[in-house]
């Protein structure tokens, strides 16, 4: 049972927040931005935390693993929750409850306490699944890849912005207000916790589950399957091998982005002798590519889909994954900053395009269990980050770790060819795409006719007011 009245254009209505689809789009990316910022808010301050709590390299590695491990399980659960109660309530609960461990990490005074709060904060990483779910139910097949990629990409910007914003907030408390460094990093996290709590309140009042209303009302009207069918659809989706192929693929792109967000500042601080602020600024360049890179992945995914069907989307996914692996291998061998920085940018471009390409495929795997597919694939990103995190906590040099990961990603790119679709589904999606394009043309025609009618009206008013200068139209 397909939800109706999905938006067939994103950019054409981009500022029309009266449309629930567009308003929801803006709320989803901002909510995810806030969560991502909170999730990795401590990463650029780890230099201070490491010294204050006397953390070893091994303990830093465990904190990196903790920040992404629990998210694996949270994403499995949150997809099921979205199918049951809808993305609006799921996001509201996640934001408001997730604010507490973010603010309370400031209570940590030992490695064990810090690790505990770092683990709890990882739950808000499940926000990604809700973001992708919510934009998928709001946008039609011709733009769903673009909408998913843009909302997630702009949300991921939080991982880049936090790299330079948190050192600035920290400096405000230390330099501006005279607090000690030990108090400064703690107060910085309290600020972030307050922001995501308020965002949760806004999400409840400014969004709805679907274009025609909330899931509860739609089920009462018979426009959606009943709640009791959700769990069965969930397990049927998990039995589809393509879901687990995409699980691995997403681990090879988003999992690597998560890892780089956690280690980039420390890597440039330790290996290139940069200051805290400079290392954070360089690390931020990786995350800031999300402003357009992930969107590009979704746009090209939609275009490949329009030209070659669903198999075109899978082929584009292979291309960008291979590019990501090759770029990371080259980056790992850079030993001077002026060479390492441009390679970091290229690596970031392909990584985030691969993420966008992945979620231009996800909406077409199983529409009856969208939450299950989005959640399992999203969990793959964190599973990849956990696996990579174990490499960084060992004795191996970090540039060698990057090389190994790059080789692994390049090899994983061939998995994209295993994401296949039946000829019946290809035909169905071609028909859906054609309908979406026709709807777009109809909307444009209606706008043109309305503009023409307004022009005729203006001419008639002028002729009535100035009969001596009457003009024919």
Mean pLDDT: 89
Radius of gyration: 24 Å
Question: Structurally, how many domains make up the residues?
Answer: 2
Structural class: mainly alpha
CATH level-1 class of the largest domain: Mainly Alpha
DSSP strand tally: 0
- The CATH architecture name of the largest domain reads Up-down Bundle
CATH superfamily annotation of the largest domain:
MFS general substrate transporter like domains
Task: State the CATH topology of the largest domain.
Answer: Growth Hormone, Chain: A
State the share of residues found in helices, binned by percent.
over 70%
**Main β-sheet, in a few words?**
none
Order of helices and strands: HHHHHHHHHHHHHHHHHH
Number of helices: 18
Structure write-up:
The protein is an all-alpha fold. The chain folds into 2 domains: 11-421, Growth Hormone, Chain: A, CATH 1.20.1250; 430-473, no CATH class. The protein is 75% helix and 0% strand. It contains 18 helices and no strands. It has helices at 20-39, 46-52, 57-85, 87-104, 111-121, 127-138, 144-176, 181-206, 215-220, 230-238, 241-271, 276-288, 293-308, 310-332, 337-358, 370-392, 398-412, 423-465. The radius of gyration is 24 Å and the shape is globular. This is MFS transporter. Belongs to the major facilitator superfamily. Nitrate/nitrite porter (TC 2.A.1.8) family. The chain crosses the membrane at residues 28-48, 60-78, 90-108, 154-179, 185-206, 243-268, 274-293, 314-331, 337-357, 369-392, 398-419.
């Amino acid at each position: 049972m397909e939800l109706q009245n999905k938006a067939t254009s994103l950019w054409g209505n981009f500022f029309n927040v009266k449309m629930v689809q567009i308003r929801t789009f803006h709320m989803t990316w901002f909510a995810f931005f806030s969560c991502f910022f909170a999730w990795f808010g401590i990463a650029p301050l780890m230099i201070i935390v490491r010294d204050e709590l006397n953390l070893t390299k091994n303990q830093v590695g465990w904190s990196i693993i903790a920040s992404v491990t629990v998210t694996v399980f949270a994403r499995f659960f949150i997809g099921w929750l979205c199918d049951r109660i809808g993305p609006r309530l799921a996001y509201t609960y996640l934001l408001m409850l997730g604010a507490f461990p973010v603010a309370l990490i400031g209570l940590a005074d030992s490695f064990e306490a810090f690790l505990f709060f770092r683990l709890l904060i990882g739950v808000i990483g499940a926000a990604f699944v809700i973001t992708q779910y919510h934009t998928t139910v709001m946008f039609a097949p011709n733009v769903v890849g673009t909408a998913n990629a843009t909302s997630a990409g702009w949300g991921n910007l939080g991982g880049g912005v936090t790299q330079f914003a948190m050192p600035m907030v920290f400096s405000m408390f230390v330099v501006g207000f005279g607090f000690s460094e030990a108090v400064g990093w703690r107060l910085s996290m309290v600020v972030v916790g307050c922001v995501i709590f308020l965002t949760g309140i806004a999400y409840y009042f400014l969004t709805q589950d679907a274009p025609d209303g909330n899931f509860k009302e739609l089920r009462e009207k018979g426009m959606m399957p009943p709640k009791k069918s959700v769990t069965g659809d969930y397990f049927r989706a998990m039995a589809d091998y393509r879901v687990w192929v995409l699980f691995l693929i997403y681990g090879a792109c988003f999992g690597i982005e998560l890892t780089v967000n956690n280690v980039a500042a420390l890597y440039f601080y330790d290996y290139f002798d940069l200051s805290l602020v400079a290392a954070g600024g360089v690390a931020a360049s990786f995350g800031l590519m999300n402003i357009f890179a992930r969107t590009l992945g979704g746009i090209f995914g939609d275009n490949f889909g329009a030209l070659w069907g669903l198999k075109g989307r899978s082929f584009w996914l292979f291309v960008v994954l291979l590019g990501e692996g090759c770029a990371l291998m080259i980056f790992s061998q850079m030993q001077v900053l002026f060479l390492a920085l441009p390679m970091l940018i290229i690596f970031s471009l392909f990584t985030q395009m691969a993420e966008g390409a992945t979620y231009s495929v996800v909406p077409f795997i199983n529409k009856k269990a969208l939450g299950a597919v989005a959640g399992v694939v999203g969990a793959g990103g964190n599973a990849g980050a956990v696996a990579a995190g174990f490499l960084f906590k060992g004795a191996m040099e970090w540039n060698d770790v990057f090389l190994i990961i790059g080789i692994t990603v390049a090899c994983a790119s061939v998995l994209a060819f295993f994401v296949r679709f039946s000829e019946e589904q290809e035909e169905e999606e071609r028909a859906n795409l054609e309908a979406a394009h026709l709807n777009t043309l109809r909307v444009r025609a209606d706008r043109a006719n309305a503009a023409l009618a307004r022009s005729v009206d203006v001419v008639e008013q002028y002729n009535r007011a100035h009969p001596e200068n009457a003009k024919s139209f």
